[in-house]
Amino acid sequence: MKSRAYIIIGVMLLFASCGQQYQAERTVGAFVDDNAENPDLIAKRDFADLGTTRHITDSLVSVMRQRGAEHFKKGISYPAIPQGDLYYLRMRYVYEGDTLQNTFYLNEELTEVVAFK
Predict the structure, then answer these.
(1) Fewer Cβ atoms within 10 A, N terminus or C terminus of the chain?
(2) What is the pTM of this model?
């Protein structure tokens, strides 16, 4: 009986984490489509596992926002910097034959990209 409860809890956690991964990938994909200089040239998007971090300070978020990244527009509009933990998601992709990678930081709800590098 106890092992059945552990299995049910494990399955529930698996589905919850899959849902978060899917939501984060959708949010980052939409951000890239909206803010890449030429989103049609970004191919073969591959996402790493979603993670969380407490080590990103407001000043680091500000620096990442100012620097941006190659192949992305300047002056991107971001939401207010949230308090607490941020989630991050790495995306590898092919751009004009080169394999590149960016890390995107998302709010706790996984609905907005807060910064990226």
Answers:
(1) N
(2) 0.81
Q: Which contacts (CB < 8 Å, 24+ apart) does range 33-38 have?
A: 35/72, 35/73, 35/76, 36/71, 36/72, 36/73, 37/71, 37/72, 37/73, 38/71
C-alpha distances out from residue 65 to 10, 19, 60, 113, Å = 38, 27, 9, 11
- Residue pair 92/100 in contact by the 8 Å Cβ criterion: yes
